[in-house]
Amino acid sequence: MVYLTEIHKIMILQMIGYGDRTRTQVAVVRLFQEKYPELPPISQGTVISGTWTCTAAKEKNPLNKLSDDQKLDLMLMLEENPHTSSRQTASALSISHSSIFRVLTENQMHPYKLVPTS
């Protein structure tokens, strides 16, 4: 297996192209060897792995994200009445019960006592 630097990986991605201007793996291997004859030859598998290792990571589930306004509304509601149950708070704000607990733990609040945990 050939160990490539980040610059070489980026060059492979540029050689592949995008949209309707993409090249085959064989063409990319040939172009790479012409451009960098001093490096050991790469395989088609290197081209395939190069396309997957340089992609950006996605968020796990963006649908469950709360906006900053919703988080602020939740914290303000709990500050006004800390004895409201989490289920009543969830139905009043139209967010899920589990999101209430997640926001509380993100803000270092204990879900049952509503006091800072540290």
Q: How would you describe what is shown here?
A:
With 118 residues, the protein is mainly α. The chain folds into two domains: 6-53; 62-106, Arc Repressor Mutant, subunit A (Orthogonal Bundle), CATH 1.10.10. It has helices spanning 6-16, 25-35, 44-53, 68-80, 86-93, 97-106. The two termini are 49 Å apart. It comes from Aromia moschata. This is DUF4817 domain-containing protein.
Query: Which overall shape is indicated by the principal axes computed on the Cα atoms?
Result: rod-shaped
Order of helices and strands: HHHHHH
Query: Unreliable segments (pLDDT under 50, ≥5 consecutive)?
Result: none
Question: How many domain regions?
Answer: 2
Write the layout of secondary structure elements.
Blueprint: H1 6-16, H2 25-35, H3 44-53, H4 68-80, H5 86-93, H6 97-106
Helix pairs in contact: 1-2, 5-6
Protein name: DUF4817 domain-containing protein
Question: Tags for this entry?
Answer:
118 residues; mainly alpha; Arc Repressor Mutant, subunit A; 2 domains; 53% helix
Short summary:
The chain is 53% helix and 0% strand.
